[in-house]
Design goal:
single chain, mainly alpha, 3 helices, about 90% helix, rod-shaped
Length: about 70
C-alpha cells in the first residue's frame, strides 16, 4: 500500500506546485523587469543616439531594443 500511495502523493504534490508557481513567477518577473529596464534603457539610448547616430542607424533599432528587454 505504501508503494502505491507514495507515487500518487508525489505526483499530486508535484503537479500543482510546478504549474501555479511557474505562472505567477513568470508574471511577477516579466512585469517588474519591463518597467525598470525600459526607463534606464531609454536614458542610456538617448545619450549615445546623439553622437553615434550613424552606427545605430546602420543596425536595426528593433534588434537593439529587443535584446536587452528580453
Amino acid at each position: 500500500m505504501s508503494r502505491l500511495l507514495r507515487p500518487r502523493l508525489s505526483r499530486r504534490l508535484n503537479r500543482p506546485l510546478r504549474r501555479p508557481l511557474s505562472r505567477p513567477l513568470r508574471r511577477r518577473l516579466s512585469r517588474p523587469l519591463r518597467q525598470p529596464l525600459s526607463r534606464p534603457l531609454r536614458r542610456r539610448l538617448s545619450r549615445p543616439l546623439k553622437p553615434r547616430l550613424s552606427r545605430l542607424l546602420s543596425r536595426p533599432l528593433s534588434r537593439l531594443l529587443s535584446q536587452p528587454l528580453k
